[in-house]
Design brief:
The chain has two domains: about 1-35; about 35-290, Metallo-beta-lactamase, Chain A. Helix content is about 35%, strand content about 25%. It has ten helices and 15 strands. It has helices at about 1-35, 75, 100, 105-110, 125-135, 195-205, 210, 230-235, 255-265, 270-275, and strands at about 40-45, 55, 60-65, 85-90, 110-120, 140-145, 150-155, 155-165, 180-185, 185-190, 215-220, 240-245, 270, 275-280, 285-290. It has an eight-stranded mixed beta sheet with strand order 6-5-4-3-2-1-14-15, with helices on one face. Strands 7-8-9-10-11-12-13 form a seven-stranded mixed beta sheet.
């Protein structure tokens, strides 16, 4: 019996040691990343035809804007978050369609989420009903996003809600999308969900150019021609336009009309179907981009 125990110890100790070494190494690699980057991280995750945006502030606060379709988000989050980190400060549902919320059910199974923000539009899909039930069961504060709200993300990073400015419970989901502006120092990102030209017109009428101008535009509705009007792009005046779309998607996104509009204003276009996950890092003055296929 003693001899057998010695054999087992001899057999499994190297495996245990290797597992511990891998875990420690992973932690050190992530710590090195944290130490080397104390600015803002913004990532458009490659989740196919849908939206999922990850934000990490200089102080480490983490926000997930939309969760993409079912079965896609967790693998992508593991590439931008530590494997030991199972906490997300807030999730934002820009609209209740499946390509924006399907992945949130997976997120709530794995991560502790402190807050949920919603626009007030509703959907009668089973996915939406199940998500609302899960939020309620977990007793997560569910907040109605409204124009004028400012989310202090820490370290000088802020997320300002520009829309909805009214009750949108009876609106079409895209028209009622949450639109927000992320800012950190001299870096700014306009987040538009699936907002349509109807929504853009309202936002243009209610905000100064100073509040709209942004270095980066997250293009509305995956590059559909129903969004991204010339007037809106002119006001935002982005240097970079980001499009979240699935390769060879059945909708033909992004539409050529949208690409032409963005090009006419000199915006450099990055697309997830061509580049994979798009990661922007900012020190408050300069932005750098990297891509993960």
């Amino acid at each position: 019996m003693e001899e057998k125990r010695k054999v087992l110890i001899k057999k499994y100790v190297p495996l245990i040691f290797t597992s511990l070494l891998v875990a420690v190494t992973a932690g050190l690699v992530y710590q090195d990343f944290q130490n080397s980057h104390r600015g803002l991280t913004f990532a458009m995750l490659d989740i196919g035809q849908g939206d999922a945006l990850f934000i990490e502030s200089p102080t480490g606060m983490q926000i997930l804007v939309d969760g993409g379709p079912p079965g896609k988000i967790l693998g992508q989050l593991s590439r931008v978050m530590s494997p030991f980190d199972k906490h997300i400060d807030a999730i934002i549902i820009t609209n209740p369609d499946q390509d924006h919320i399907g992945g949130f059910l997976d997120v709530l199974k794995v991560y502790k989420v402190d807050k949920v923000f919603e626009p007030g539009t509703i959907n009668d899909s089973k996915t939406y009903q199940n998500l609302e039930t899960e939020i309620k069961n977990k007793k997560i504060p569910d907040i109605l996003a409204k124009k004028g709200m400012r989310l202090d993300l820490g370290g000088g990073a802020n997320l300002d809600i520009l829309f909805p400015d009214r009750d949108v419970s009876l609106w079409a989901s895209n028209d009622g999308s949450i639109v927000a502006r992320l800012s950190y120092g001299e870096t700014s990102v306009m987040l538009t969900g699936d907002a349509t030209t109807k929504t853009e017109k309202i936002i243009l009428g209610e905000n100064s150019l100073a509040m709209l101008q942004s270095d980066i535009l997250k293009v509305g509705h995956h590059g559909s021609r129903t969004s991204t009007s010339e007037a809106f792009v002119k006001a935002v005046s982005p240097e970079v336009a980001l499009i979240s779309d699935g390769k060879d998607n059945k909708y033909g996104h992004p539409h050529q009309d949208t690409l032409d509009t963005l090009a006419s204003f000199g915006a450099k276009i990055f697309r997830t179907d061509l580049l994979g996950t798009i990661i922007m890092e900012s020190d408050g003055k300069n932005e750098t981009f990297s891509f993960q296929k």
